[in-house]
Amino acid sequence: MQQATWSVGKVAKRCGLKVSTLHFYEEKGLIRSWRNAGNQRRYKPDVLRRISVIKAAQKMGISLASIKKAFAALPDNRTPTMEDWQLLSTSWRDDINARIAYLERLRDSLTGCIGCGCLSMKNCPIYNEDDKLAAEGTGPVILDRK
Q1: pLDDT digit string (tens) for 27-68?
Q2: Which residues pair with 6 in a beta bridge?
Q3: Model confidence, pTM
Q4: H-run or E-run covering 66
Q5: pLDDT (0 to 100) of residue 117
Q6: Taking the mean position of all CA atoms in its chain, how far away is CA 133?
Q7: What is the per-residue pLDDT across 92-128, written as a single tens digit (0 to 9) for each?
Q8: Bridge-partner residues for 42, per DSSP?
Q9: CA-CA distance, 62 to 68, in Å (whole number)?
Q10: Are 65 and 35 within 8 A, CB to CB?
Q11: Is the backbone of residue 113 left (phi > 0), alpha (psi -120 to 50) or beta?
């Protein structure tokens, strides 16, 4: 096992993050550090891979809660391997595809009715007479249709 010898500053610089971000990740249980004899945080070098997975997942729009849940599934809270990353990224694909579909519906509806029930648009294609869309749910129900 590699020794935890990397300082928080060294990890932050290498990962392109602020020290406060590393503290935040640690507070959220996404990474961990150890304390040396002087009570300073120290990290194992493999924390770089774990942070890289966090950053890649965040760029895909994956929440920190989902990332934490995925990490929790790894044995002994280990750093994800290449195979782990393949499984993680594949498992997030459906969520990403759903968000892409939602964004496409949003893009295509930006200048039209989204079914919010406001009845204020003159060219709302359905005009939502008597707010019938309320039966389907709250907010922009047309956008939320699959």
Answers
A1: 999 999 989 888 899 999 989 989 998 998 898 888 999 999
A2: 43
A3: 0.67
A4: helix 64-72
A5: 65
A6: 31
A7: 888 889 889 888 887 877 776 666 666 666 666 555 6
A8: 7, 34
A9: 10
A10: no
A11: beta
